[in-house]
Amino acid sequence: MDNRSRISKIVDSLPPSGIRQFFDLVIGMPDVVSLGVGEPDFPTPWHICERAIYSIERGYTSYTSNKGLRDLRVAICEKISKEWGLSYDPDAQCLVTVGVSEGMDLALRAILNPGDKVLVIRPCYVSYAPVAIMAGANVVYLDLDERTEFKLHPELLKLIMKKEGPIKAMVFNYPCNPTGVSYTYEELSAIFKVVEDSEVILLSDEIYDGLTYDFSHTPSFVFDGLKDRLVYLNGFSKTFAMTGWRIGYALGPEDIISAMTKIHQYTMLCAPIMGQVAAIEAMEHGSEELERMRNEYRRRRNFIVSELNRLGLKTRLPEGAFYTYTDISSTGMDSMEFAQRLLWEEKVAVVPGVAFSPGGHRFIRISYASSLDKLRQAVFRMEAFLERL
Ligand SMILES: Cc1ncc(COP(=O)(O)O)c(C=O)c1O
After folding, report:
1. Is this model's pTM higher than 0.90 or not?
2. Do residues 297 and 304 make contact, with C-beta atoms less than 8 angstroms apart?
């Protein structure tokens, strides 16, 4: 038996992550300005760390309930009740997960039978399709492009639903990684009306909800007609600069949350207790720090978008997250060539758009979760690069 044949056919068929592949090149290169990673450059606010440290000092180092610390689930549901007047039952409709990553995996595995269709809207976060495929899905894609400014329109959704027939679930993410696109209440209403009129289960990844810059984020759970078919996924990684703590949560109908909990208890047992304690602190006292980080990201966004456009690289103003999705077609290069040359020649790392969709070959993703100084340096280097072309 050769080594290849012992690997599961599904796993073997998955392409390696485009981002990873590219960033293997960056590792070990000195003096690189990296605008590649999708991770806040801020450390976790200190009061959040301190609460976790204090809990460790008091001996909180054990497993928790499979569903997660009840105090955290209550804090999550109470916040929603206070802010939106909606009730989620912390015992039956809420599950604490190891990041949104685990939440998405659990949701897909909990609802899919082999061959069920899952709609993935591209360009999107690199994990959705592979995780769906590993859960047995037949993934169907809806590719967005600059004609709609990478926004999902209800007509596009209607069209694909008509073309594909029954779709079991749809993965939706806003604000979006990599485009930064988000939606107003009215836009969401129109999109979700199409979902409501179908049988589709909506898996809504709103991990960047706190990082919306020009209007406030409308969560999918406020749309009443969705409630029985919505799995809402969120977490602490981006909003509170807590990527390493690995805490997310899922809210949804009791049967789906219970099925997700079943998988979770056999695979993860529970999310790490220290992270859960830290997440309680973030829920209870994190809003000021969040506001500070959001203001800083907004400043950076405004700076980088205006500079990229000045350099002739067409960039729309993203409504949220911390990425620009920048059109590099004016250079005559495709995204991989552009990103590789920019890295070799000027030591600036960005992500080629092909990592997010086949149509991404004319785009790069730039993360502005980097200090203004670094962004200035990157712009300076990019300008030199573009002048030489
Ligand atoms: C859209 C989106 N969802 C989920 C994740 C992963 O989140 P977590 O750290 O909560 O697993 C990321 C990370 O980049 C992301 O961009």
Report:
1. yes
2. no
Query: Counting atoms of ligand 1 from 1, which one is nearest the CA of 124?
Result: 1
Q: Say how far apart CA 227 and CA 218 lie, in whole Å.
A: 14
Q: Which pLDDT tens digit goes with each residue over 205-239?
A: 999 999 999 999 999 999 999 989 999 999 999 99
Q: Is 120 helix (H, G, I), strand (E, B) or coil?
A: strand
Report d(CA 240, CA 158) in Å as an integer: 36
Query: What's the pLDDT score for residue 4?
Result: 59
| DSSP 8-state secondary structure symbol assigned to residue 7 | S
Residues with CB under 6 A from ligand 1: 38, 99-101, 125, 173, 177, 205, 207, 235, 237, 243, 248
Determine the distance separating the centroid of ligand 1 and the alpha carbon of 17, expressed in angstroms.
Answer: 14
Q: What DSSP assignment string belongs to 237-278?
A: TTTTT-GGG--EEEE--HHHHHHHHHHHHHHTSS--HHHHHH
Separation of alpha carbons 202 and 232, rounded Å: 8
The tens digit of pLDDT for each residue in 248-273 reads: 999 999 999 999 999 999 999 999 99
First to last CA, the chain: 50
Nearest to residue 154, comparing CAs of 189, 125, 130, 120? 189
Max Cα-Cα span within the chain: 61
Rounded to the nearest angstrom, the distance between the alpha carbon of 2 and the centre of ligand 1 is 35
* Sign of the torsion formed by the C-alpha atoms of 223, 226, 228 and 229: negative
Pocket test for ligand 1, best of 19, 39, 100, 205 (most atoms within 8 A of CB): 100
Average pLDDT, the chain: 96
Domains of the chain: 3-44+288-388 (3.90.1150.10), 48-286 (3.40.640.10)
Residue owning the nearest CA to atom 8 of ligand 1: 99
| Bond preceding residue 114 cis, omega within 30 of 0 | no
What is the side-by-side strand order in the sheet with 138-143? 94-97, 248-251, 230-235, 201-205, 169-173, 117-122, 138-143
Q: Is the pLDDT of residue 29 over 90?
A: no
pLDDT, tens digit (0-9, with 9 covering 90-100), for 75-106: 999 999 999 999 999 999 999 999 999 999 99
155: pLDDT strictly greater than 70:
yes
